[in-house]
Write a structure and sequence with these properties.
This protein has 2 domains: 83 residues, Elongation Factor Tu (Ef-tu), domain 3 (Beta Barrel), CATH 2.40.30; 63 residues, PRC-barrel domain (SH3 type barrels, Roll). 5% of the residues lie in helices and 41% in strands. The mean pLDDT is 89. The strands form 3 sheets. It has a 6-stranded mixed sheet. By secondary structure, the protein is mainly beta. The chain is elongated and about 55 Å long.
Length: 172
Amino acid sequence: MTDRVCVAQIGAPHGVRGEVRLWTFTADPMAVTRYAPLQTEDGKQAFEIEAVRPAKGHLVARLRGIDTREAAERLTNVKLFVPRERLPEIEADEFYHADLVGLRVEDENGSEIGAVIAVHNFGAGDLLEIQPPDGGAMLLPFTETVVPEVDIKGGRLVVVLPEETEAPEEKD
C-alpha cells in the first residue's frame, strides 16, 4: 500500500480567472475540499481549494495562488495526492485505486492472468486494466461477479473471466 493516495486530477482551465476543472476520485466529490493541502505526485507543490462548485461531471475549483488562465493551463492533467492518514477509514469491501494497482490477477483455479496496471472509471463504474504476462492489456469490470476476491495483504485478486460469446451468424 502506498502512503499517499490520488484524490483528484486537474483538467483544463475554466474561464480566464484561473479556475480549473477538477475530477475527483472520492466517493463524495466535494470531500476533496476536506483533505487540504493537496500535493502533486512528486510532493513539490501543494494546493488549497479556495472555492469549488459542481459542474456537469466534474467540479470547478479556484486554487489559492492560481489567478490567471495561463497559470491554470500549466496545471492541466496534474494529479493531486494526500497522505493516506488524512483519508477516512474504508469499509472491508471498499478499496483505494492505489491499493489495487500492482496486484497479481489470478483466475478461480489460481492460474496467473496478469497484474492490475490501472483502474479507470469512464462514468459507468470502475474498470481494471490488466496486463497479461505475454503483453497487451484487457479491461474487466470491477464488480463482485467478475472480481469475487480481493486480497490486498496477499497481493492478489481473483477474477472470473466472462465467457466468450460467439458472433451472431450472418443472414443471407
